[in-house]
Write a structure and sequence with these properties.
By secondary structure, the protein is of the alpha/beta class. It has 11 helices and 8 strands. The chain has an 8-stranded mixed sheet, sandwiched between helices.
Length: 268
């Protein structure tokens, strides 16, 4: 399954020349897991999962295009771009086949990879995401606001929507740091991702996903609908969490992840 070892930090170059910042951690020679971040965040959103899984898996994380230390191409992005980015990261990390964990837009990207490059996906974890959002006017308005006023205009209300009231009340410092991270996200990168959330419709691809799949969500109905549309899927609720279950409920999220991914056996 593994083609070669890589240094802890490396770059991947995607199909259009976009440079993607990639970080590897964990147990070399063990089953690999690729993590894909949510919009407005970077690979550090998975720090708590690396700490929990690094002794049993090879961990690959990267900053999605337009985010973190990756390149920031101008213009609108597409789900095909993001999916091809993820495959480029798998290649750069030196693996033929990985388990993929994605949150929000990262989950949509993971769906694309599992449907369009099924030979690359061992297991699939879809956290706090959907196959289709729609509402183009909402996303067009958000893009226009970012272009006119910058990320400072949308950072605080966006984080307020993402996080549960309990998180905001009991962990205000973490909430503030998330607002600051969103403010620091390049406006072109965030706007490009908004176009993906506006346009992406993966519903027709879901029956093509064959990998065993775990859907993690905060609400029963959307999580169950997504799991029902994938042939070999089940869902797990994190009812105390908001939109970012891995950050709000790390112990429960990590336990679900560890149970689903298994012991991380040695690669042959």
């Amino acid at each position: 399954m593994s083609r070669s070892d890589s240094s802890p930090s490396l770059d991947a170059t995607s199909f259009d020349g976009c440079r993607l910042h990639v970080v590897r951690h964990g147990a070399a020679g063990r089953a690999p897991v690729l993590f894909i971040n949510a919009i407005g965040l970077d690979h550090h959103m998975w720090d708590g999962q690396v700490a929990a899984l690094a002794d049993r898996h090879a961990i690959i994380r990267y900053d999605s295009r337009g985010h973190g230390r990756s390149d920031v191409p101008g213009g609108e992005y597409s789900i095909d771009m993001l999916g091809r980015d993820a495959v480029s990261v798998i290649d750069a990390a030196g693996f033929d086949r990985v388990s993929v964990v994605g949150c929000s837009i990262g989950g949509m990207t993971a769906m694309w990879v599992a449907a369009m490059a099924p030979e690359r996906v061992e297991r699939l974890v879809l956290s706090n995401c959907t196959a289709h959002i729609g509402r183009p006017a909402v996303w067009d308005d958000r893009i226009a606001e970012i272009e006119a006023r910058g990320m400072a205009a949308i950072a605080e209300p966006t984080v307020a929507r993402w996080l549960s009231d309990t998180f905001k009340a009991t962990r205000p410092d973490e909430a503030r740091r998330m607002v600051e991270q969103l403010r620091a996200t390049p406006a072109d990168g965030f706007a490009g991702m908004c176009a993906v959330l506006r346009d992406a419709d993966l519903r027709a691809l879901l029956p093509r996903i064959a990998a065993p799949t775990l859907v993690i969500g905060a609400d029963e109905a959307p999580a169950a609908r997504l799991a029902d549309a994938i042939r070999n899927a089940r869902h797990r609720l994190m009812p105390a969490a908001g939109h970012l279950s891995n950050l709000e409920s790390p112990p429960a999220f990590n336990a679900a992840l560890a149970d689903f991914l298994g012991p991380g056996t040695d690669l042959e």
